[in-house]
Write a structure and sequence with these properties.
Elements: H1 22-30, H2 32-39, H3 64-77, H4 81-90, H5 92-97, H6 110-127, H7 131-147, E1 153-162, H8 170-183, H9 187-197, H10 205-210, H11 217-238, H12 243-255, E2 256-258, E3 264-266, E4 286-290, E5 293-306, E6 316-323, H13 328-341, E7 348-351, H14 358-366, E8 370-373, E9 392-395, E10 401-405, E11 411-416, E12 422-426, H15 429-433, E13 453-457, H16 458-468, H17 475-489, H18 502-532, H19 543-561, H20 569-572
Parallel strand pairs: 1-7, 7-8
Antiparallel strand pairs: 1-5, 2-3, 4-5, 5-6, 9-10, 10-11, 11-12, 12-13
Length: about 575
Amino acid sequence: MFRKNERHRQQSFLTGVEWMPEKVRQGISDSWAGAFREQVFCRIDEELFVDLYSEEISRPNTPVNVLVSAEILKSGFGWSDEEVHEQVCYNLLVRHALGLADLRAEIFTLRTLYNFRRRVREYAEISGVNLMQRVFEQVTDRQLEALALRTGWQRMDSTQVLSNLAQWSRMELLVGVLQTAYRQLPEAEQVSWKERLGAYLRGRPHQVCHRIPAKEQTQHMEKLGMLMSEMATELAAIDPAHDGLSLLRRVLEEQFVQSAEGAPTLRPAKEVSAESLQSPHDPDATYRVKGGKAYRGGYVVNASETADPENPVQLITAVQVEPNHTDDAQLLKQSLEEQTQREIAVERVTTDGGYTGPTGEQACADHGVELRATRMRGGKSAADHWGWESYTWDMAEDGTPVRVTCPQGVTAEVRPGRSPRRFVVHFASASCAACPFYQSQCRVRPRCRTGPGFSMARRAIEVACQRQRLRPEDAGVRAVVEATIREIKHPFRGGKLPVRGLIRARMVIYGSALMANLRRIHRQFTVKRDISQPQTPVSNPSLPFVRLRTWFGGLQRLWVSAGLGTAHRSMAAC
């Protein structure tokens, strides 16, 4: 039965923490834990999770905001489940952050945390709604409102993260899929298949492949395809809804081609899609090569943050996590749509060249957003020719080119070509004949009967106009978001997530992004506030001892002058 947690709002004087010295209690309040309790824990709307619990009268649930906050701390600090439970039990700062100041309060068990996480994942699978995303959006929106931050100018960047998977070769993948499908067979079927699979079941995939010579692996992959095809046929006859059947069919379709005889033939490696399965343990993870580096079995994380220079602190406003073959322009579109639904006003976005292109430009046009890219996707023109961006294009209201002016100031009309998305331009013969750049750097070429001119596609004109709108001066503004990306990935060693599956990847990334925002708020409004306060001069700690020695020295001189002998050795030693 669902019940909201209100215990943290009622402070008791018998908690144990209240008996601590005032300086210690103030230190806890001013630490990151105090900021987390105020900025995150108290702002979590527990009503978002009401569908996870039964409506029947039963035992009350473990406080939702405590469990959600534990998940956020786990992601933000890179803790394991055992570590986060230990921290909640024995760390006063963590207890304060989770509203567990009463030392007598019961602590949730690890099993409770597992069950809660499982219900959140299953709810996302059924409804398509990731509740951790809703928490991130709800808490962030309240932070933006409370701090009165301007969201009109934002910057954006993406990065690659890996799923918690072993990096398998193609041969290892096929062996792993066959072993997974075999383990999902009924016991009676496993007996009949054990002898047929033979050596492919002896050890893990990398151990099986290690015993096979490299020159024989292609032959074995063909054999594995035959075995998977036979197993899929038998499973379809026994149980068409079997989980192993869908796995086998997917791999057969992605890795093999059905020959005329019906036997599967191995596809060439270059024909295998980037969306193909990388591991049977994470069907959502995909393959991508970016910057010359291959990411086998991972996701792409896209982050948007405020960039207005008048903001006292910049916060992450939106995060997207998708299979790593997703294009950056599609992530830009998704970010703008999500922020529009949350009523966050975005007027301009500073990005790198990866977000340019028809999809990104159309998304910005649909939402009335200025795309301020610092670079442009695609190559530039040759050095001995003017690029299309060197020409001035006059556009109609619907985006159709009307006139063009060459770098030498000669203007000509742009007319529709024979194809729907092509245009032709004709210049005056006399103007071009006198131009020193004609038939060299200029794009204009002599034409048979129509005189000098050129033809070009509509997309080339759009790219030229986009290049003219590039903002290289925003490179410094955009570069800051790279630190934000590193901040989100920092808890995960080597950029490898501790989880598998798209839903779980989103859950941990949203938690890490919330902690990144929390650290910024704490740094800005707690640490810097302490620095700005006037500091009380600290006296020399040895000064009292110096004064004491001076006093004893004077006493010794008086003792001697009175004829009472030398001073006591202990006094002289002071």
